[in-house]
TrEMBL record:
The keyword Transport applies. Belongs to the bacterial solute-binding protein 1 family. It comes from the Bacteria. PANTHER family: MALTOSE-BINDING PERIPLASMIC PROTEIN, MALTOSE_MALTODEXTRIN-BINDING PERIPLASMIC PROTEIN. The keyword Signal applies. This is Extracellular solute-binding protein. Keywords: Signal, Transport. Coiled coil: none annotated. Gene3D superfamilies: Periplasmic binding protein-like II.
Length: 414
């Protein structure tokens, strides 16, 4: 073979090698460009307990590591600002892809901007309790997934009560008398949130209902008696007027530190107490009644996971589906301290956890709040009246009259 033919064969061989490498490189580039970009979703919430915040971080982290294309980021918005911020984001068209909203507020927000139907994403929807479904269903569609249930409850430091020879009060008059005996130095006998937020209304409704009062009959003798009790608690010194400036988390912190003996807050805070003060001696029970002839009653609540419409709603729906899985919901609710909205998980909780069993027993005497479009307006009017009663500078007759007028105008505006 002459040199010319030899070089020709080597030339052809090298050209073939280059073509193969080029094809492989081209395929690799095509493969790389076909990889989907990571979609980042934002989840807004207002849960201020450390246990709740940690639980949300853990479930989003688990979801983020379960796949490669979606990353969910958590953003905390204080409860007193949450409604305003979410409403403004809807008006500006700059909503988070996901949000936890209070069950009583879903209808209001959904009327502003319809949430995405999540019916198909909820695992075992037929197993969900009617109380949980009621807060989410609009025109036959699930506009959110129930994410647990809680109730307002009275927490009492039994160690301090026993040292003073006192018992857990059964009526509001007994609570005031007991709280007065326990108030000394830098310690108050009782506290409940009264800041302008849904948490405050949630704690106040058992007081209103316990006296036989109703929002629809706010000028009745029973309703006025409930508001008067707020004034008496503050004026007597049994409760600090500073509750007008404290969120529920602040009040629970004071309870754990022994600066308040009795608090009326959500049952979910027992999880925080057990984690941060495992040796604390306390009981959680029904809020007091108006008098011995009235039944004790509390309020049932919970959060709803919603998806807002937009370019990333399909990715957000995948997160809802993930959270609805039995194993994921069990982990989340165990950390938050909520009762499950679905029957199979709930029965396991009651059988295995004495604290949640106690919560369930308290919830048997619970009432639902309104699920109406105008509830946030009612909520603000109630907290304004609560604050005025606690400060005590305006005559109660004027406070109640102004509250009734606000509620009346709101109904007439529908």
């Amino acid at each position: 073979m002459n040199k010319r033919n030899l070089w020709r064969k080597w030339y052809i061989f090298l050209i073939g090698i280059c073509l193969v490498v080029g094809l492989l490189t081209g395929c690799q580039k095509e493969k790389e460009t076909s990889v989907k970009p990571v979609q980042t979703l934002t989840l807004w919430h207002y849960l201020d307990s450390s246990a709740s915040k940690q639980a949300l971080l853990e479930i989003t982290d688990t979801f983020n590591h379960s796949q490669e294309n979606i990353q969910v980021e958590i953003q905390y918005v204080p409860d007193e600002d949450f409604k305003k911020h979410l409403a403004l984001s809807m008006a500006d068209g700059d909503m988070p892809e996901l949000a936890l909203v209070d069950s009583s507020d879903l209808n209001y927000f959904n009327a502003m901007q319809s949430f995405v139907n999540v019916t198909e994403q909820i695992e075992n929807l037929d197993d969900y309790l009617p109380e949980a479904i009621a807060s989410c269903k609009v025109d036959g569609q699930m506009k959110g997934m129930p994410l647990g249930m809680n109730c307002a409850a009275l927490f009492c430091n039994t160690e301090i009560l026993e040292e003073a020879g006192l018992q857990v009060p059964k009526t509001w008059d007994e609570l005031q008398e007991t709280a007065l005996k326990l108030t000394k130095d830098n310690r108050y006998g009782f506290a409940m949130p009264a800041l302008r937020s849904e948490e405050s209304v949630f704690s106040f409704l058992p007081l209103l209902w316990g006296y036989g009062g109703e929002i629809a009959e706010i000028e009745s003798e029973e309703s006025q008696a409930a508001f008067l009790k707020l004034r008496e608690l503050s004026e007597s010194g049994a409760m600090s007027p500073q509750v007008n400036n404290l969120i529920t988390g602040d009040i629970v912190r004071q309870f754990m530190e022994g600066n308040v003996v009795m608090v009326l807050v959500t049952s979910a805070f027992q999880q925080t107490i057990q984690k941060e003060k495992p040796n604390m001696k306390y009981v959680m029970t029904l809020p007091p009644s108006g008098n011995e002839n009235k039944e004790c009653v509390t309020a049932i609540g919970g959060e709803v996971l919603v998806v807002t419409p937009g370019e990333k709603q399909d990715e957000a729906l995948k997160f809802v589906k993930f959270v609805s899985e039995k194993c994921q919901m069990e982990k989340l609710l165990e950390q938050i301290g909520y009762l499950a909205p679905r029957e199979d998980i709930l029965q396991e909780q009651i059988a295995e956890n004495e604290d949640l069993k106690n919560t369930w027993q308290i919830m048997q005497q619970a009432r639902l709040r309104e699920f109406s479009v105008d509830w946030p307006y009612v909520s603000v009017a109630l907290t304004d009246a609560m604050e005025e009663e606690i400060v005590g500078e305006i005559p109660q007759s004027v406070i109640i009259s102004n509250l009734a007028e606000k509620l009346r105008k709101n109904r007439e505006a529908k």
